[in-house]
Batch of 2 targets.
Target 1
Amino acid sequence: MNDASIACIESLRDFFSASNAMELEDAAVRIAGSVAAVIPPDTDWTAVEYEFNRLFVGPAAVPAPLYASAYCESDRVLMGKAALEARRLYHQLGLAVPREGVIPDDHLAFELEAMIVLKSALGADAPPSQDAKALHAWFVHEHLARWLGPFILATRTHASPGGVVALAADALAAWFDKELNTTATPLPE
Amino acid sequence: MSQKTRALSRRQFLKGISVAGAASLLPLRLLMPYSAEAATAFREQDFQIFRNACPRNCYDTCSIKTFVKDGVVQFIEGAQESTFTQGGLCVKGYAYPRRVYSPDRIKYPMVQDGRRTGNWRRVSWDEAMDRIAGKILEIKEKDGSLLGLGLTKYSGNFGITNYGVEGMMSSLGYTTRFVGTPCWPAGIDAQNYDLGDMWCNDPEDMVKSRYVIIWGANPAWCSVHSMKYVNEAKRRGAKVVVIDPVFTQTAAKGDVYWQPEASSDGALALGMARHVLDLGLVDSDFVNNHAKGFAEFAAYLRENVTVEWAAGVSGIPADQIREVAEEFASADPATIWIGYGMQRHTNGGASVRAIDALVAMTGNVGKEGGGARYGHLRTWGFNYHALLQKQPEGAKGFIGATGPKGEFDFTKGEAASFTDRTVNINKTAQAILDTKDPALKMLWVSCKNPFAQDFDRPKLEKAFDTLEMVVSVEQFFTETVNNSDIVLPVTTLFEEWTVNASYWHYWVGINEQAIKPMYETKSNIEIAALLSKKMNQLAPGSCTFPQDIDTREWLEKEFNQGIYDYLGIKHWTDLKNGPVKARLASSASWSDKKFGTPSGQYEFHSELCQQNGHDALPRYKEGRKPYDEFRLLTPHTKFGLHSQFINLDWMHEFNKEPFLYMHPDDAQEKKIADLDMVRVFNKVGELKIKVKLTSNVAKKSLVIYEAWFGQGNDFNVQNLVDDESADMGAYKTGAPGVAIHGQFANVERV
């Protein structure tokens, strides 16, 4: 387990699950720290909150939904197969989304938290269990890889250039790129 | 990716692997420990099947079977038990799961920092209610009453428990209510004057008709399930005549199509009546024994009406009028389906009365397979528990009015010192601007999208800008939400318990909660309960609405023995087995010829109508005088129900953008080519739109289907429609209707 990597995922998780300007600021500052970026001190965090909601939350139609199903289904619809895959993964980890079915299981923040669990499992076991390795590899290659790319593209397309949301998207992209490149493809027995 | 991996099912791969326990030592924020036992209900192998009912403002009010797996609505279908729904839904109905699972759904309570800025912030329900309750209390303190608080609500969700929105308002005190309906009020009044109620035959008995006239309705789009009865009647030999200023898909199915001048329907019906009279085809038993005033009506026809005159007014050739009139009067039974479109005129009520008279004089009222079909509310005898809430002790209100009423108001008004203040829902903008002492300061919007449905949009925006707070309860972001300060996310039909009845057929179905309410959505009555809790926290005794709501219990409270007897069920839970049809003595309304009028007879001559400011007889009344070069018609679109559904991806597949439809000859004169961008404009406002040329539209007419929004589309026909009143509607619905089709405009290429 790499503490820096976990901290980066945690900050991304907290950013994409933020519900107000204060939470966004807290998470964004940690994201910036993890990627050696600088957030201008005069940043208007309320404006960041408006942008975050415009892109991801609503109430207007969102250009970059935070849910895997929006990108993995043939139609743009939530609670599809990707959500149930995520649910099953959490169950395998002995976890579940609170009040299962209320928030789609494939919300980015839940998935990032599941990634933290998986990476912790990999780091804690010596040597890591085959199950943990396989599950992690599946999650990276078969699940996240299917939607993070389009999600990051949608975010970058609609976010203010050089803004905090774009910074978070870049950090997510950088982290996942590394994760993808350092994770062997799943080859179960 | 290797071939081996690709071939592997993701689920198979996940099965059998467990890393449970890995999370036990981690400080997780979001995910919680998983217990297989707790989640069993959502992991059943088989589908759970739930009963739902379409709650929209639609003839068909479909009974739905919902298939749920893993706690997710997988698909829905029409209930087979209902012979009306017959296992099928319309495109809109099949799209319902896409409303629940659309990424664009409104998920959380949010506040907008400045209307139309798009600067939205999430707030907790508690904070939202704190702001709302605080404003209500501020108004009360400043004005000494809550008349500065207004409610506009209509047909976005006709589930009976949703009348809890009105109940919520009553539980706060006496408020200002937008009353009436933009939909069908002129016709409701007309049928009440003629027959004593709006009560139509069972639509399923149309198969018995030998002659069907569909007059100003387009069921091929707006009541798809009714078409099978029209088609079956036709298969059995009936002739089908369609009368509509637009050549619709329904018209395409007819044997005869008439494209009259819009608003000339009364003249056409009277011309036919005159010919029936001349031929001696009047049903003498009916007009002599069950009707009042036929002699006066006949005299009016003889003295004032000729077929040639009717042909001149309507544009339908006299020989065709004679032919159809004779066939109609000779067929037994014969029926006319009176659509809502034809009464949305300044003479709409008078026109409906003329058509009623034609049906009545031919003996087709009270007859199976006959009837002047408009609508009914016979299956709506619920308790209205959610609606009937008491004002708090000491609440002050409006003096001098009788309080609100509407077509769905089944309550018996009690004498009270105060009442709510009522204003005309069809003049929303003007009412907001004009209402004083006290002025409207706050507006609650639910089950309604005023910016798509209310008239004179430019004026509406100005009116909204005078309000200090606008709260919208919505599922999707509409122009109304854009003009709101607070939006509250409301549940879909799959997430709440309620019951639904139709205003057309006689089936009633329950609506079960099939899935958990997603995100932070709440039903209308749960929102009311939450507001009540907050009001009472801030000012004890300020709201009487119950503070803890179980939507299933509230559904149960809507039923009574009368409903059970009418439906032939012992308990509402019987409806879990499927929808039930009312036990009808006859498929015909008024089969016993005992009418609800003051005389107890069909009234060709209605003193009540006269007392209410109209002609006692169904005399011809001219429509609105043109005020611009073209008539403008803005009917319902095919894949939407007003502004609902229109934003969904499936609908965009079919209807990517709105168009203006105009006749090629008119276009040539205006130097407009197919698919040109044009500006349509009149005294109200303007809009820019692409044009499609078609002879389905009459010359000198412009047709634009209403209500498009979403995906960057800010098109709005209400930029061109003013709030001119229809002639009738105030008697039964509290406010006159509106002349939606009595509109005019001009067009030019841009």
Target 2
Amino acid sequence: MSASDADVGAVVTGIGVTAPTGIGIHAHWQSVLDGKTGIGRITRFDPESYPVRYAGQVPGFAARERVPGRLIPQTDHWTHLALAAADDALGDAGVDPAGLPEYEMAVVTSSSSGGTEFGQHEMERLYRNGPSWVGAYQSIAWFYAATTGQVSIRHGMRGPCGVICAEQAGGLDALGQARRLARSGYRLVVSGGTDASLCPYGLTAQLATGRLSTVDDPTLAYLPFDAGASGYLPGEGGAILIVENGRHARERGAGEGYGSILGYAAGFDPPPGSGRPPALRRTITAALADARLAPDDVDVVFADAAGCPDLDAAESAAITAVFGRRGVPVTAPKTLTGRLYGGGAPLDVATALLAVRDGVVPHTVGVTRPDPDLDLVLGEPRELPLRRALVLARGHGGFTAAMVVGTSRRR
Amino acid sequence: MTSFTLDDLRELLGSIAGVDESTDLSGDIADVPLADLGYDSLAMLELAGHVQRRYGVPIPDEAVERMTTPRSTVDYINAQFATVG
């Protein structure tokens, strides 16, 4: 990496959203500012016999309108959501991949479950009818890297491609890798991610963590940092972001785009019972150091917001240790979507960049008895001059990541 | 004896492997390489599975190598019909 490439950094020039809050940046951002929830009773299958019956589902998504005909039967719903978001993100960035060198474009996405709905369908055919009934596309559709591969093929992007599977933290890890590639000279990286595991098999796998809320009321089930926190609700979808080398973006007139990825760090929790603290605090500190910023330079924190009392307390302690008690506005717009795993952090990063653009911190919906140590933004959006946002994400199993995004201009 | 036509193939390809926006399956495609129509070996394995289940004729995986165009595919499948009577 040349010094100049590192200095110009990585900018986000396009955003595509397929989330429970809506399809497209405008619908999503409007839902977030209005506090309009995308969580409702699961309709992708009959959830009656399950202990969790509510989730965030992408409203009005029709694969046949958004996905190339030949890819629909070959790929899972999760990849459909990502292909549509990738198209939107490229359009938003004003990029025509056909006009760019194929080896200078890369694809790095996050995925935590792979194609569970597709996989369940094929497994049903296996045990009902036998092996010869399992479709050939099962060999590629379930695979964690399927989204990355299909985006790469569809848009002719033959630079470094990969997938990161680190549950909710994976979205930041993917964007961290996208930033690394952009800074090392690759022109453009399609990054971010989606997940979609709202089928019986997918939901059952999620139940195994014991962290889903079984409260039978969609307005009360997912209340992060609230005295009544009982776990979280799952969701589907996410966001795809176009990360560009800053110099290339400037040369083609895209400027700073929505802002830069200024800092990133990843950590991993010590094993349970070790007595050592979780990785979040030092991961935040490392991300700030990577961005060469002080805590005072951060204007808002988009929390991981697990909604589980122990994880919320650990996150509150980490934020308070770095920023001081009530030292920085904290928000969790994922209360409108549920946790989206591989898609969650990219959507948070997208929302954070829109917040910086418009100078408004979206509020956390539903919480009425908040953790007194946090300045949780509640009730309505808070207008503030914003320069930089810190996005946090923790994945089941100990994955931890932190990313600073926003304007690179100093005060 | 059952016979398998080009239209049967068109219908099957469209339903199991989808159709590219840029591809017109209704045209004169008999001798166009399937790869050029957007159907790779995985699509042909998927097709082989459907033909086996629908018509009860064996289509071994190796047959996919001989199914390179719509015409050669239709011919192969009809030949298999003939072997099972």
